[in-house]
Write a structure and sequence with these properties.
about 190 residues, alpha+beta, 3-stranded antiparallel sheet, 7 strands, about 45% helix, elongated
């Protein structure tokens, strides 16, 4: 008795139903082994780049870097704010290298990806807890130190000096003085909400 089964010729098979059942069981085992091998070989660290439309400008896009680590939430970094959609290759997640600006951006993206991977390896080497937030903070030189309200007000004033009028900046300075005098008083922290 000859039986043809999906390109395989089976000779002298007494029980074709049993053979088909064992064939399918073996196929499922192979598929499960391949899935397991793929999961074990999957990289726990990934960096990808993509563009997103700017909220304040309808024509331009921003390039973002997404840092992904298994079992942690991904974190994003803005790489550049002003790029046209036609200058970006959506499939490759890279700029099209048709101008000097895009070639420089491509080199910067490669350098950035290498630095992020180096940070990841350093953390793993020192047996530290790896998270996307930690890698982002190390890359952007943000340490986890606490800042005071006065430091926060000073940063806001510095950032807004070019954007606001002198009167607004004068009001910010007055607010800073009020916050400073408030902080100098001896206050029971339990009374603050």
């Amino acid at each position: 008795m000859k039986l043809f089964f999906v390109g395989f010729e089976i000779k002298n098979c007494n029980n074709p139903a049993k053979f088909v059942q064992s064939f399918w069981m073996r196929l499922v085992q192979i598929i499960n082994l391949k899935k397991q091998k793929m999961m074990n070989n999957s990289y726990p660290f990934n960096v990808s780049f993509y563009i997103r439309k700017n909220k304040n400008s309808k024509k331009n896009y921003s390039v973002y870097c997404c840092i992904k680590i298994l079992e942690t939430s991904p974190r994003e970094l803005c790489v550049i704010n002003d790029i046209n959609r036609s200058e970006w290759n959506l499939r490759q997640g890279r700029p099209k290298q048709n101008s000097d600006k895009m070639i420089k951006l491509s080199v910067y993206i490669d350098k950035m990806k290498a630095e992020l991977f180096e940070i990841y390896l350093d953390i793993k080497l020192h047996n530290g807890e790896v998270s996307a937030e930690k890698i982002k903070n190390i890359f952007t030189d943000k340490s986890s130190h606490d800042i005071t309200i006065l430091e926060l007000v000073d940063v806001a004033i510095m950032k807004s000096q070019k954007e606001f009028a002198k009167g607004t900046l004068k009001n910010y300075g007055a607010t800073r003085a009020y916050v400073d005098s408030f902080c100098k008083k001896n206050i029971n922290l339990a009374t603050l909400n």
